[in-house]
Design brief:
Layout: H1 17-21, E1 56-57, E2 60-61, H2 62-66, E3 68-71, H3 72-77, H4 100-117, E4 121-125, H5 126-129, H6 136-157, E5 160-165, H7 184-203, E6 208-212, E7 217-218, H8 226-247, E8 252-256, E9 265-266, H9 271-280, E10 287-291, H10 293-298, H11 305-312, E11 316-320, H12 339-351, E12 360-362, H13 374-400, H14 402-410, H15 417-423, H16 429-439, H17 449-459
Parallel strand pairs: 3-4, 3-12, 4-5, 5-6, 6-8, 8-10, 10-11, 11-12
Antiparallel strand pairs: 1-2, 7-9
The structure holds D-xylose and nickel (II) ion (2 copies).
One nickel (II) ion binds near residues 1, 292, 294 and 331.
Length: about 450
């Protein structure tokens, strides 16, 4: 994500903003509830062709497996601005101001969008939904007002909060980090912001709470005491866990790994780094991971790598379902449209029995050239259909049982004899020496990668 363009107190002259304030005002005129239309043609863009919420796949409905969520920051605060160019996206209800009235309009537009999409969850940063005030107190009061409206809209529409998070990276005070800032004053500010963030998460019934360490890292090792910073980061989590328990907030804490951008190096580099951090500080039972595949590829891994690794350690809590452009090499936050990628992710979700209370959050933004209002819908619909196809293909793979059988067979030497002894941790180096003396050189067993790839393609 990077759509935290500054808001201006502009008096944009186009657009009739007041008309959106009227009771029952419609933001997306001409776009109705998105239907599931099996067999819809290639040009029919405002229909689901694969995502059929109530269809049962391997014992659960698609809706239960996929738990889609729309993120507020990209879809309702994204402007299309990039480091080289100005905003391109006009949202007729948004006057560009940093006012409560504008924040409320955006929120009502948001809930109409979620409802028309039939998506049951949303996510936000504190500062996306509500303007930062001139003091922490004023920011808190703004957030109270806006979350009163959010609560009302959640009740009215049945849309729930997958997770909330605090923006601890956009404001200049956080330029050297939040919990890893060398200045304790900034640490304290971030802690105070998270305290309020947790109050609000509880108020809205958030099922999780995310920590993305955007500036928890460094630009230069010359001026950084990395051990002190990591110790402080752990302390920050301990304080947040204590407060969460104190107020009785039951959402799951999630760290979202990312290797770089905006920092040159971020401490939450990738899944295994975060797992090591959590275990080092005894936090592994309190915090899970929110994996964003675009970050995984930025870390130099393949798309599904961190989803697989986090799940292997029972730490996969949720997924920011997006994709990058590996040929560009930064966090482009595109909608996931590649069926193979979606299949690999959904295979993990099926294998671990689901992702709840996490979900698939579309931390994605339309391209700055995708300027039609309709593109907001088309992008999400396409990603949901891709994930639904991924789910169906993954179910075929698991139910077909062929690939799982091959993998099981590949490790079968650990089921008996010396292998079983090794697996149980009962073998010594002497035992292995004796085994090799008796059995000689091991056979050269093919890894059969191309055969596996062919089998995967058979299902896709
Ligand atoms: C940025 C992250 C961010 C988190 C929430 O790259 O993906 O959007 O998901 O702070
Ligand atoms: Ni991202
Ligand atoms: Ni993300």
């Amino acid at each position: 994500m990077s759509s935290f363009a500054p808001t201006t107190e502009s008096s944009a002259s186009a657009g009739n903003f007041a008309s959106y304030d009227a009771e029952g005002a419609e933001f997306f005129k001409g776009i109705g509830q998105i239907p599931f239309t099996a067999g819809a043609g290639p040009e029919e863009s405002l229909a689901y062709k694969h995502y059929n919420a109530k269809e049962v796949v391997m014992g659960k409905t698609m809706e239960e497996w996929l738990r889609f969520s729309v993120c507020f920051w990209h879809t309702f605060r994204g402007t299309g601005a990039d480091p080289f160019g100005f905003p391109t996206l006009d949202r007729p209800w948004d006057d560009g101001s940093n006012t409560i009235a504008n924040a409320k309009r955006r929120l009502r537009a948001g809930f109409e969008f979620f409802s028309k999409m039939g998506v049951k969850y949303w996510t936000f940063h504190d500062r996306d939904i509500s303007p930062e005030g001139s003091s922490i107190k004023e920011s808190g009061q703004n957030l109270d007002q806006i979350t009163d409206l959010a609560l009302e809209l959640q009740k009215k529409t049945g849309v729930k909060l997958l997770w909330a998070t605090c923006n601890l990276f956009a404001h200049p005070r956080y330029m050297n980090g939040a919990s890893t800032n060398p200045d304790a004053h900034v640490f304290a500010f971030a802690a105070a912001q998270v305290k309020k963030g947790l109050d609000v998460a509880k108020k809205l019934g958030a099922e999780n709470f995310v920590f993305w360490g955007g500036r928890e890292g460094f630009h230069s090792l010359l001026n950084s005491n990395v051990r002190a910073e990591l110790d402080n980061m752990a302390t920050f989590f301990k304080m947040a866990i204590a407060y969460k328990k104190k107020i009785g907030f039951n959402g799951v804490f999630l760290i979202e790994p990312k290797p770089k951008e905006p920092s040159k190096h971020q401490y939450d580099y990738d899944a295994m780094t975060v797992i090591a951090f959590l275990r080092t500080y005894g936090l592994e039972n309190e915090v899970k991971l929110n994996i964003e595949p675009n970050h995984t590829t930025l870390a130099g891994h393949c798309y599904e790598h961190d989803v697989v690794m986090a799940s292997a350690y029972k730490m996969l809590g949720s997924i920011d379902a997006n994709t990058g452009s590996p040929d560009l090499g930064w966090d482009t936050d595109q909608f996931p449209m590649d069926i193979k990628n979606c299949t690999m992710v959904m295979k993990v979700v099926l294998e671990q029995g689901g992702i709840a209370p996490g979900g698939l959050n579309f931390d994605c933004k339309v391209r700055r050239e995708s300027t039609d209002i309709k593109d907001m819908f088309i992008s999400h619909i396409g990603a949901m259909d891709s994930m639904a196809r991924g789910l169906k293909v993954a179910a075929k793979i698991l139910q077909g049982g062929v690939i799982p059988r091959y993998v099981k067979e590949r490790y079968s030497s650990f089921e008996t004899g010396i292998g079983a002894k090794i697996a149980k941790g009962e073998a010594t180096l002497e035992d292995c020496e004796k085994y090799v003396a008796e059995n000689g050189e091991p056979p050269r067993l093919s890894g059969q990668q191309e055969h596996y790839e062919n089998m995967l393609n058979y299902y896709i």
